[in-house]
Design brief:
Keywords: Chemotaxis, Cytoplasm, Hydrolase. With about 350 residues, the chain is α/β, with parallel strands linked by helices. The protein has helices at about 20-30, 45-55, 70-80, 100-110, 125-135, 175-180, 205-215, 265-275, 290-300, 320-325, 335-345; strands spanning about 10-15, 35-40, 55-60, 85-90, 110-115, 165-170, 195, 220, 230-235, 240-245, 250, 280-285, 305-310, 330. β1, α1 (about 20-30) and β2 (about 35-40) form a beta-alpha-beta unit. α3 (about 70-80) packs parallel to α4, α4 (about 100-110) packs across α6 (about 175-180) and α8 packs parallel to α9 (about 290-300).
Length: about 350
């Protein structure tokens, strides 16, 4: 995470539950740079009030009000008053994990999910939550439109072998991007997919339930020694690096890389060393540069390397770093990725790095 800037951050709260709203007000009062500019308990005239408040960040409840659709509200904000949005999970969940509404909110454009019952957090956890709010507020979000990114004219590309494994990395904005890709793939998709997604605590299990419900693929938390199967997606577990060799999952509790465990650089390096040109590496939306060094290693070993195109990318940090460094050989709009994964040869339609 980045260090907080010295510029005050204007935070809007849409939290109908009085207790949850008070807890967030108390949390934000611990940081003089987080200024609550708007407190809302209902969605009435939300867009107008957000624009007038000039908010930098919106914290919205997983349950924003009776009969209110979280997904519709977020979609409206992203279309008419775009700003970074984070979801506060409902306080009614016994295990404090996000529910299906939160997953749909991520799909609509929210960047992450925060714990809803923050009164139980210790000092370190509260500090990390404040840093997350600083990081989210600094992101440049894209205005959501119902249109498709422009495609480039077909381009020839060297034919490559069908991959034995595909590695994908994502961070902020990643859950929605991964959902958009995986929902289009068939149950018999022939190549195992390994994913490193940076999660907040308690997010992994509900994320897997969400993907399992919406996709035709088998979604699983990766286990050490687990065989790689067609039609399966393996997601790195909390606090473990993910890799693969000889058709099996390799987990590691080695030190964090760049502050991350799991790290996308660890995943891509493992695929480069063990599969070479028989692997593909893809970097999606996210802050920072996790995965870039590993993706460069993959490219040097002959693997196909792709970064999400800037058009429509929620957080153009990791993809930009991958392209500017030369680690990613191609840029591809998110909406085109399922088709190219299905083609599996990527012989046309790729955007070269700018």
């Amino acid at each position: 995470m980045t260090s907080p800037s010295s510029t005050p951050i204007r935070v809007a709260l849409l939290l109908p539950e009085a207790v949850q709203r008070q807890n967030f007000l108390e949390l934000l009062s611990d940081d003089p740079l987080l200024d609550v500019c708007l407190e809302l308990s209902s969605t009435d005239t939300l867009i107008d009030r957000l624009n007038r408040a000039r908010a930098d960040l919106l914290v919205i409840a997983e349950t924003p009000g009776p009969g209110a659709s979280l997904r519709s509200i977020i979609a409206a904000v992203m279309s008419h008053a775009p700003m970074p949005i984070v979801i506060a999970a409902t306080t009614h969940h016994v295990d404090q994990t996000p529910g299906p509404r939160a997953m749909e909110g991520l799909r609509a454009g929210a960047l992450t999910v925060l714990p809803g019952l923050i009164s139980n957090l210790d000092a370190h956890q509260r500090g990390q939550l404040l840093l997350t709010l600083h990081d989210m507020s600094a992101l440049k979000v894209v205005r959501r439109r119902h249109s498709h990114p422009p495609s480039s004219p077909p381009r020839s590309a060297r034919q490559r072998p069908t991959p034995e494994v595909i590695g994908i990395a994502a961070s902020s904005g990643g859950p929605a991007a991964l959902h958009q890709i995986l929902i289009e793939l068939p149950a018999d998709f022939p190549t195992p997919i390994l994913i490193v997604q940076h999660f907040t605590a308690g997010f992994l299990s509900p994320f897997i339930r969400w993907l399992s419900h919406d996709t035709r693929l088998h979604i699983d938390i990766a286990r050490d020694g687990q065989p790689l199967r067609p039609g399966c997606v393996y997601i790195a577990p909390d606090h473990h690096h993910l890799g693969a060799s000889q058709g099996k999952i390799l987990l590691s509790n080695a030190p964090a890389i760049g502050g991350f465990r799991p790290s996308a650089t660890h995943l891509f390096t493992s695929l480069a060393d063990n599969y070479g040109p028989r692997a593909w590496g893809i970097i999606l939306t996210g802050m920072g540069r996790d995965g870039v060094d590993g993706l460069m290693h993959m490219r040097h070993r002959g693997a196909l390397t792709i970064a999400q195109h800037e058009q429509g990318c929620a957080v153009y940090g990791m993809p930009r770093a991958a392209l500017e460094s030369g680690a990613a050989a191609h840029a591809l709009p998110l909406s085109h990725m399922p088709r190219h994964l299905l083609d599996r040869q990527l012989s046309h339609g790729l955007h070269p790095p700018d």
